[in-house]
Amino acid sequence: QVQLVESGGGSVQAGGSLRLSCAASGYTYGPHSMAWFRQAPGNEREGVAVIDRHGSGGYADSVKGRFTISKDSTYAKLTLYLQMDSLKPEDTGMYYCAADWTHLGLSPDQYAYWGQGTHVTVSS
Hints:
single chain; 124 residues; mainly beta; seven-stranded mixed sheet; four-stranded antiparallel sheet; 11 strands
């Protein structure tokens, strides 16, 4: 059973940085894509960044130039990262890691496996 466990959330002032991590386990071979999503209270879950099996990344317009997605794949271990710089109060929310073995994109419907989330608070 695939498991995704996020870490690295916390509170930071505007302009600061955080690095989120997502440890993946329980898979036989690497996923087709992994992504970070976020959800603020009262809002729908939105895609933030995606990375394919070859390491190519894509970003939502709201985070381009500020966030960087990456992954580290070693034998039987896969970790997804999200480096978040120049954080803004509107970046506040619960951040989720997701993985899929078929699809690629920034829509939540494209992902079958999800972590429990890690919370990010950015104060002004």
